Amino acid sequence: MNTNDNQINDYSAVLDAKYGKEGTKERQKFNEEAYAFYTSQIILDARKESKVTQQELAERMHVSKSYISRIEKGVINPSVATFYRIMNALGMRVEVVRPIA
Question: Is residue 4 assigned to a domain?
Answer without folding.
Answer: no
